[in-house]
Amino acid sequence: MADGIVARARRRRAHCDYAVYDLYPLFRPLLFRVDPERAHRLVLRGLDAAAANGVARWVAPKLSNAPVEVMGLRFPNRIGLAAGLDKNAAHLDGLSTLGFGFLEAGTVTPRPQPGNPRPREFRLPRAQAIVNRLGFNNDGVARFVANVERAEFRGVLGVNLGKNADTPNEHAAEDYVLGLHAVYRHASYVTINVSSPNTRGLRDLQGEDALSALLARVTAERDALAERHGRRLPLAVKIAPDLDDESVRRIARLLVRRRIDAVIATNTTIARDGVEGLRYASEAGGLSGAPLRGRALATQRTLVGALDGALPVIAVGGIMSGADAHERIAAGASLVQLYTGLIYRGPALVAECVRALEEKR
């Protein structure tokens, strides 16, 4: 009988926590009246304040551990934050209260850069989508590292690296190596981002010869740093959803050959399937959110088939519900990342996804 009372109390507590986080839809209309970038900053500052004053501990959903080992790392659960939300690793403590099993910060470049001119981010609420052409706006890797050192967060941290916009592709490897050196001691894993559509020419680095040369240089530097630090840092590569199947298969073979540890599928798309005629649909930039789901899932399935278990796939793109997260795991992904779903669903999405995977085990 006592066990039953305890179990009911725990269920009520879990329901209460979930309900608190589910208040986000009440505030979303107000946030959506504000410019997307300003709303982004307001939410992150609120999370930081909640973490700093201890409020976050009381309202965060209570999630049971469902650990998994991927890339030689132990993740508390399979649901992570995708790169782009915290470009400068300035909000790790606040974001860590949402129940994620891991956080990926960035994209960060060696030197600070302002990104593309504003306006550069647009909501498409009817489609639960966002178009952005931010262009790797960030404070540079030195500030990024300082922020990581200042944070109390000690969980699994991925660092997403990019090249500066004014670095020509023939020298891109130098930027990735500079970033790798700077973050090596602080990162749990590093992602090589060659798939953003918002830096001119960046996606050309996904071509077989260019990618092979880039990864040869980066993995050689990683191996040298591993000797120096006594720790081999896993490397992932993030690819676009706009590649044809044969290009995806070529990349899969190359990643195995170059001893990469994981692949992230996918970045945003330049296609406009599912948003035709909507306001802002014709804006230049990458489309994310619900309309990306099918394209990202198709790319993931091609990757999983081509890799045949040789390395893990991390799924991202169009994951708006627990059912979407489960679909990605069922299709062969080892981990799942969220971004645009958080904008539309709020923090409750994290708990929903974690619990959906627990229930389906």
Fold and architecture overview:
The protein is an alpha/beta fold. It is built from 13 helices and 13 strands. Helix 11 packs across helix 13. The protein is globular, with a radius of gyration of 20 Å. The chain has one domain (2-360): Alpha-Beta Barrel (TIM Barrel), CATH 3.20.20. The two termini are 28 Å apart. It has helices at 2-21, 24-31, 36-52, 55-59, 92-95, 141-150, 172-183, 208-229, 245-257, 293-307, 322-330, 340-345, 348-360, and strands at residues 68-70, 73-75, 79-81, 102-108, 121-124, 129-132, 157-161, 189-193, 235-239, 262-265, 286-289, 313-316, 335-338. The longest helix has 22 residues, at 208-229. Mean pLDDT is 93; it is low at 1-18. The strands form three sheets. It has an eight-stranded parallel barrel with strand order 3-4-7-8-9-10-12-13, surrounded by four helices.
Overview features:
15% strand, TIM Barrel, 361 residues, disordered N terminus, three-stranded antiparallel β-sheet
In short:
The protein is α/β, with parallel strands linked by helices and 361 residues long. It is 43% helix and 15% strand.
List the helices and strands and how they pair.
Elements: H1 2-21, H2 24-31, H3 36-52, H4 55-59, E1 68-70, E2 73-75, E3 79-81, H5 92-95, E4 102-108, E5 121-124, E6 129-132, H6 141-150, E7 157-161, H7 172-183, E8 189-193, H8 208-229, E9 235-239, H9 245-257, E10 262-265, E11 286-289, H10 293-307, E12 313-316, H11 322-330, E13 335-338, H12 340-345, H13 348-360
Parallel strand pairs: 3-4, 3-13, 4-7, 7-8, 8-9, 9-10, 10-12, 12-13
Antiparallel strand pairs: 1-2, 5-6, 6-11
Helix pairs in contact: 7-8, 8-9, 9-10, 11-13
